[in-house]
Amino acid sequence: MTKLVEWLGASGLFVGVWAYLFISTPVSHSTDFARHFVLFLPFYVLLAFAVISVSIIAWRVYTFNDCEEAAKELKQEIEDAKADLRKKGFKIE
């Protein structure tokens, strides 16, 4: 099962449950808090998703590893390529 199908299935399930709660909650038998909570539940879920996503991205950027050996190797390969091009007659700045 692909991630798209998983997300669409979970989203459809959430929308179905939310619609059922919104439609089946009579205005006369519920408190204003419960009615507003059900009404704004999609926004709360979207806000929680955004906060969690930004937190995960920030943590992964904060803990990103530097690869000193790879940087040195890349610089050496660049210098080798420049030397090879100079030997073949190219002018490099």
Give descriptors for this structure.
single chain, 93 residues, mainly alpha, 3 helices, membrane, transmembrane, endoplasmic reticulum, coiled coil, Dolichol-phosphate mannosyltransferase subunit 3
Beta percentage is under 5%
CA-CA gap between termini? 52 Å
Quantity of strands, as a count: 0
Helix and strand element order: HHH
Largest sheet features = none
Membrane topology: Multi-pass membrane protein
Subunit structure: Component of the dolichol-phosphate mannose (DPM) synthase complex.
Keywords: Coiled coil, Endoplasmic reticulum, Membrane, Transmembrane, Transmembrane helix
Transmembrane segments: 7-25, 37-62
Question: How would you sum up this structure, described in words?
Answer:
The protein is mainly α. 78% of the residues lie in helices and 0% in strands. The protein has helices at residues 3-24, 32-62, 68-87. Helix 1 runs antiparallel to helix 2. Component of the dolichol-phosphate mannose (DPM) synthase complex. The chain crosses the membrane at residues 7-25, 37-62.
Write the SSE topology.
Elements: H1 3-24, H2 32-62, H3 68-87
Quick overview:
The protein has three helices and no strands. It is mostly helical and 93 residues long.
